[in-house]
């Protein structure tokens, strides 16, 4: 055994869509294999690859699957290139470890075969670099011809393997980080537009040194944009900083104050992608339009462990000018992340962020403070990185980047709005399913096909997730009624409506491995009615009331679950939600919850609250953190023949009662979302599914009615 652990299987289905599965990989001295579970005793692996001197490790760079980024490696035999294993990791550090381990095993066979001329050719001489462009050992392999495969060399001249990942950038993307390479600077000093002598310190701000390009001319045209860069030290590993920079999810709001929205337009290859990025510059927003960008992003990892990320603007047919934005132009830009010696046991890295950008618009050439204000705000993200890592111990969630479906501009403004909304809807649909890692799927062969027009991800994935958990027949909602009316209009008052699953984040299929969460999908049950009751005493067991939705469902042979949220006070209130389904799926997590004991129910029943509209203090008090109801407040479970009622006594918790006292006084001004679900703890139970979700809007206390309850015979 050389190395083992959980990794990601990456591939494509026959329909062309990518998939990723969690698999347990084992590297032995002659074999690379993976299993669906951690192997016990003599378990047969799902797939194996014999390791010898003819094997190669190909770096495929960064791939995006439903917004999640994975770093992909492909291991193959050069004599049988169709026999390969493609593996990936959520962080580049893990991918590098596996790459190093596999190459070390290959090297052992290459050493033993050197005497008979079977050479492992994934070695690169530094003198062989083309114009300073570096390549990984595996990428360089693909550039060799068949004749070169038989090339023999003196073993005494062999050099150590290079660890650079990524070929050189496209010719039209300027690599400003070459100024740090003294050898190249000496060879091409006349061609280096950003050598050290062209920079001068402009100011020190937020612990950063801000440099400005020093132009040795007397006159500059107004259209010329002067380059600036920020240099700072961040106490984190280069890998952690790199992964944070590459992500464009909500985490970016925590360290980049110029970020408003970002998404992937096109994935060119594993190291090059085209991105859309809108900026939050806040410079007289009443008069100055916001800016956005469409640019190419290239990245690589160098031999010394440093990372380079380069930017340059590029037009793209699926990312035309957007209404309400001015399209800025990046001449050159990016990050250079270099390792430094640790201090007090903490890793450190120097981060350089350069930006040469033309913000366009009428005011740029006449108001110099606008350009400088915007540039400084963008460069200050280095200080944001430093503070982010100084205040964060661990990052558990995998980085994400939304996928842009189509943002091509059209002439008609109504078409623009329709297309943009359609694109955003499709983005939400893609993200709805998150990362699908089906532990029991047998689809483990690489299937590379041409990109075509395929069915939407909802059509494909819902067949696998929804069909196993819920019946497909529709329920006739007209037979149910409650005293609180349903109204789906946004500005409606004293009513309820359904809240979509995408408003809540639940545990994903791979939560056990990376703690990631995804937008919830379709509900398990239908919300059919809501009652709003009041009485002089606490109202228990409302499902016994004749004619209520639970009784109607029982008469029709349907199963219902009733949530009775009990609000204490001089007048007791109860808001009752009735969820209905055709039948329980035997063996499912939900069925085990319904038929389990109270201890199991208390450990699993979860509420996700949210206040989309309300005062700041109420939104902060309520929050949106999931809560195990049975652990926070007293819950009484009443199991009927065709229903389960859960009476939630909010007054049993001092904290909940305090928040409730704050909320009840301003309840008429609030819009509240609530989602109920059963917490999933194991891979067999994941991903989580919502029982149901509801939105109640501007509830009036005076609209509550006194219920007429039958005698409790239970």
Automatic annotation (TrEMBL):
InterPro entries: EDR2-like (IPR045096), EDR2_C (IPR009769), PH-like_dom_sf (IPR011993), PH_domain (IPR001849), START-like_dom_sf (IPR023393), START_lipid-bd_dom (IPR002913). One of its GO terms (cellular component) is endoplasmic reticulum. Its main location: endoplasmic reticulum. Signal peptide: none annotated. It comes from the Eukaryota. It is found in: Endoplasmic reticulum. Residues 1-107 form the PH domain. GO terms for molecular function: lipid binding. This is Protein ENHANCED DISEASE RESISTANCE 2-like. It comes from Fraxinus pennsylvanica.
């Amino acid at each position: 055994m050389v190395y083992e652990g959980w990794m990601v299987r990456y591939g494509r289905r026959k329909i062309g869509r990518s998939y990723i599965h969690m698999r347990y990989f084992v590297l032995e001295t002659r074999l690379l294999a993976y299993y669906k579970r951690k192997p016990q005793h003599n378990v047969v692996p799902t797939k194996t690859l014999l390791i010898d001197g003819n094997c190669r490790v190909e770096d495929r760079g960064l791939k995006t699957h439903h917004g999640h980024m994975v770093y992909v490696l492909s291991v193959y035999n050069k004599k049988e290139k169709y026999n390969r294993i493609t593996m990936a990791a959520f962080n580049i550090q893990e991918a590098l470890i596996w790459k190093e381990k596999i190459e070390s095993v290959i090297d052992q066979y290459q050493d033993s075969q050197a005497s008979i001329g079977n050479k492992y050719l994934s070695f690169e001489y530094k003198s062989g670099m083309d114009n300073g462009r570096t390549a990984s050992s595996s990428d360089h392999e693909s550039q060799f011809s068949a004749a070169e495969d038989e090339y023999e060399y003196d073993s005494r001249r062999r050099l150590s393997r290079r660890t650079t990942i990524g070929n050189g950038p496209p010719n039209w993307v300027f690599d400003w980080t070459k100024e740090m390479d003294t050898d190249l600077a000496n060879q091409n000093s006349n061609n280096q537009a950003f050598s050290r002598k062209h920079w001068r310190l402009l100011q020190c701000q937020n612990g950063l040194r801000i440099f400005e390009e020093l132009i040795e001319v007397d006159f500059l045209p107004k259209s010329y944009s002067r380059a600036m860069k920020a240099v700072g030290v961040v106490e984190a590993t280069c890998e952690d900083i790199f992964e944070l920079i590459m992500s464009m999810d909500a985490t970016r709001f925590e360290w980049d104050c110029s970020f408003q929205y970002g998404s992937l337009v096109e994935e060119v290859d594993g190291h090059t992608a085209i991105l859309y990025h809108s900026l939050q510059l806040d410079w007289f927003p009443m008069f100055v339009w916001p800016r956005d960008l469409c640019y190419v992003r290239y990245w690589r990892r160098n031999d010394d462990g440093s990372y380079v990320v380069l930017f340059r603007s590029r037009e793209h047919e699926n990312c035309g000018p957007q209404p309400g934005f001015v399209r800025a132009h990046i001449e050159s830009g990016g990050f250079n992340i270099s390792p430094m010696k640790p201090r007090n046991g903490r890793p450190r890295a120097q981060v350089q962020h350069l930006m040469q950008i033309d913000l366009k618009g009428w005011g740029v050439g006449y108001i110099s403070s606008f350009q400088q204000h915007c540039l400084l705000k963008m460069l200050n993200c280095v200080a944001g990185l430093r503070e982010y890592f100084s205040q964060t111990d661990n990052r558990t969630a995998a980085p994400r980047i939304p996928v842009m479906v189509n943002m091509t501009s059209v002439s008609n403004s109504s078409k623009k709005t329709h297309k943009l909304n359609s694109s955003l809807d499709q983005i939400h649909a893609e993200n709805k399913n998150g990362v699908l890692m089906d532990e029991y799927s047998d689809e483990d062969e690489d299937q590379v096909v041409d990109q075509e027009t395929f069915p939407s991800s909802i059509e494909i994935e819902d067949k696998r997730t929804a069909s196993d958990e819920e019946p497909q027949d529709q329920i006739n909602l007209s037979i149910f009624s409650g005293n609180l009316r349903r109204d789906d209009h946004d500005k409606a008052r004293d009513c309820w409506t359904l809240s979509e699953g995408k408003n809540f984040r639940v545990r994903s299929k791979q939560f056990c491995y990376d703690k990631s969460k995804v937008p919830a999908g379709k509900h398990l049950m239908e919300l059919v009615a809501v009652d709003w009751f009041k009485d002089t005493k606490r109202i228990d067991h409302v499902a016994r009331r004749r004619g209520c939705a639970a009784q109607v469902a029982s008469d029709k042979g349907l199963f219902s679950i009733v949530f009775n949220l009990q609000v204490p006070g001089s007048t007791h209130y109860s808001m009752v939600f009735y969820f209905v389904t055709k039948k329980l799926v035997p063996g499912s997590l939900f069925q085990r919850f319904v038929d389990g004991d109270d201890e199991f129910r208390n450990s699993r029943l979860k509420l996700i609250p949210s206040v989309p509209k309300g005062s700041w203090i109420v939104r902060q008090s309520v929050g949106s953190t999931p809560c195990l109801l049975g652990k926070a407040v007293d819950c009484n479970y009443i199991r009927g023949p065709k229903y389960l009622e859960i009476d939630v006594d909010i007054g049993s918790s001092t904290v909940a009662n305090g928040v409730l006292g704050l909320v009840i006084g301003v309840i008429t001004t609030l819009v509240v979302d609530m989602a109920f679900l059963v917490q999933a703890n194991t891979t067999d139970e994941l991903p989580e599914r919502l029982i149901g979700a509801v939105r109640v809007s501007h509830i009036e206390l005076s609209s509550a009615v006194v219920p007429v309850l039958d005698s409790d015979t239970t």
